[in-house]
Amino acid sequence: MSSVDSDIAVVGAGVVGAATGLELARRGASVALLEAEDEPALGASGTNSGILHTGFDSISGELETELILRAATLRDPVLDALAVPVLRCGALMRPLAAGDRAAIERLAENARVNGVEAALADDGSLAVPGEAVTDPVAFTLALVAAAGRQGAMLRTGFRVETLERRRGGGLTLAGPGGSLAARLVVNCAGVGAARVARAAGDASFDVYPRKGEFLVFDPPPEAPLRRILLPVPSESTKGVLVFPTLDGKVVAGPTAVDQEDPDDLAVRPDARAEILPKAAAMYPPLADLEPIFAYAGLRPAGRGANYVIGASPACPELVNVAAIRSTGLTASLAIAERVAALVAARGIRLGERAPLAPGEPPPAAGPWWRRTAALLAGGTSR
Question: How many domains does the chain divide into?
């Protein structure tokens, strides 16, 4: 085979791409981590809730659920070694409308089936002590930094526009930011994953942006929020939730707005009216508060697909990791483990995981929930 720059090119340095790059580097592969933006975690990974889910409400038997549950066994040693902050606050779901008690009882049974600790109280509420909150940007940046300590190379401002087969094997990736040759490409490009796959001739899935909008509040000192407050989900959405942040704020959201524009991060004027009444029903102090900030993130929703993780049917040198919705932060380490197995099956030799080199998460400029402001101001290469 002609020479390549890296064994593996991971496209996308969000939390899934960062976790994948770290996993592969720890197993001895040479890895290039390619990010279209000027820095990692400017997409869905840095504009979500930061909640680490237990999977108590996930559908048993689905790949997403399997990976959420597996990630729970992998996460704590990594968070501890990388000094990623976590607020282990637990969550509470209370019945607020007719039919809620029956729905919550079904979720309690679902938690039992999934092996997740949850306690159903006499008043019909469900406590899930394992739910937690992290700083999603700190988590992602810590994974990227750890991958770098294991030898991975990060290239930012690298938007992949073409993927060409190389004589003798492998792919050449090119676009604004340069070019790079790799034996294998792992496509973790979030809302751009379908575009990257199509550059390699793979039209087997499609991804579109689903906007989730959030409102940020300063909580009143007399009524601090101690736990994540969960709504009873409907068939179409998990609904608006209310949660504390590591820096003492309270966030309510998200909405779920399907759109086509992958660059539209604006918070709609209607978002407040859609979020606030539902949030205040769970946490009444919000009814008298004005939000101090609002932000939006674009989740990569699949068209008729969820958690597309596998070898491309059109290009042997491409592995797709696509349509990873809001649970991607939670499941990222298990997704990475699964990708490593796929990479090994494609003929790239991987060893056992090397120990993690401890390190502090790189500092971010300001609170993570303000990062979309830079995008809206045109401060990045989106």
Answer: 1
